[in-house]
Amino acid sequence: MQRVAAGVEGDFLMRWPFPDERSKKKFLAAGFSRVTCLYFPLALNDRIHFACRLLTILFLIDDLLEDMSFEDGEAYNNQLMPVMAGEVQPNPDRAVEVMMWEMWEGMRQCDRDLSDKTLADTFIFMRAQTDRSRAAIRNLGQYLEYRERDVGKALLSALMCFSMGLRLTPEEYTSVRSLERNCAKQISVVNDICSWEKELAQSKSSQAEGSALCCAVRIVAEETCLGIPAAKRILWVMVREWSNRHDKMAALRESSDQGCSNAVKMYVKGLEYQMSGNEEWSLSTMRYIDLKPDQDERLDDVL
Q: Domain of life, per the record (predicted)?
């Protein structure tokens, strides 16, 4: 993990236009390559660096979008997509375009089919980042449906398959869909609980649409009138229930009459690693824990 992270982070430190040394230190403390390795511990040695590069650049872009309007953010992502697809040559003066182009060209040379699937799901994630409907979400059901796209669950699983060289038939993908959606809920809510202080601080420091609070913590606090700390505790209980449900669903899938190939078993185990890896990183990354918890339980102060 350390060797892969050092290589990827060193490349970004040299090429990404960080504004100052503080930003570089903040980038290193976040540990984007670390979380990728935790997500995909079964990745092939010659592919894990691609996964680290992709998630790292998407995290960095997500931070940029926070200070943009939905319209500007959409334009930013739309300009990148044809470069990522190899349809347009990158602007040599824009590091994000050059790095995206090089990365996707390398992924296509490595495994065309799985990289194309990953690219399609990356585009779904990028469109969700600037989805104007997020501003109108008012209940947890709507939110979880939106977050399935915004958290990039399809992207994570496609990237998992690419990094592992894992191929499922269309029928096998359909058979694990319920496990996939359960995993998406668990990952989304863990991320929301742990990133609350970061998202709250960003919403207070910027009036841009990209900084608007859209978070399960806020929604549960609003719906229950119990305040932020209580909402977090409620959500942690839900997280544990989703984790337990995964174990039960996995056991049922493996013992089902339709059979369970080794590819399906590895896919289901990969979902488990995504959940545990995301939780370990979310509870330890300086991206989240470097901020003091919000002490005010009065809901009106954070809405």
A: Eukaryota
